[in-house]
Amino acid sequence: MNLGADNLPTATLTQLLPVFGRHGGAVTKYEKVLMQQPNHKQAWLARGYLLQKWGIHEEAIVSFQQVLALDPANILAWQGKGISLGELGKYEAALQMFDKVIQIDSQDYRGRYNQGKVLMNLCRYAEAIRSFEQVLKLKPENYKSWYNRGMCQDALNQTKQALFSLETALQVKPDCYYAWSARGTVLIKLGKYQQSMDSFDRSLSICSDNFAAWYGKASCYVCQGKAQSAIQALEEACSCAPNLCRVMLSSDPIFDSIRHLAAFNAIVGEEEPTQELLESLQ
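User: That's the sequence. What structure does it adopt?
Assistant: Structure tokens below.
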């Protein structure tokens, strides 16, 4: 789900966790606090976020529930519990947590943002768009909401609207490499291949180890009938994310025109294409 600590108030980690330390001694320290003061809300909250940071989500949820037992209106605990539920793939339950945050404070943009992310995971794109638009009313320069709004619009085949959202995200955050990649993919759908390629190149100039940009370049090349360039871009994509690349290639119809090529099947089949195979594309 990848909600993460960046969607929570900075104080959550930077002010609470140092009380207990950031490394091995943290557990001992906060457990000692809780043994002496079992109703210490701040200790339970810090424990929850520390466990969440370590990926121990079930135990983090226990901590957040302890906070909520002491303080049912504690927004940070509702947020934390929702994030951990989302990371465990329990999206419907997570959605209820973020709904509760919004019920407590309708101006809490993080709750609305996380609500939108969960709705995306549930493929409820129209609802997710509404959540991100609520965030943007509160925080017009929240580039992640512009980006996710664009991704939802693209999923609903609202291609021109998606392009507007992604370009707005990039106006706010010009070095957002994944927004450049997404823009490139949308431009392919609009048949604007040179602009698409420029977007992927811009993305790669920011982050060279970038699966989406290389895969997008391959898609753009194949749409223009440039088989060899497409194969070379796919090799780069597979070097970034081998398993993801091969899974996507197995069913992506955009590559049907080169699926018969030996070099393409060498990539899908996890074999290194020989120079002879590459030369056969010329």
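Confidence is low (pLDDT under 50) at residues 4-24.
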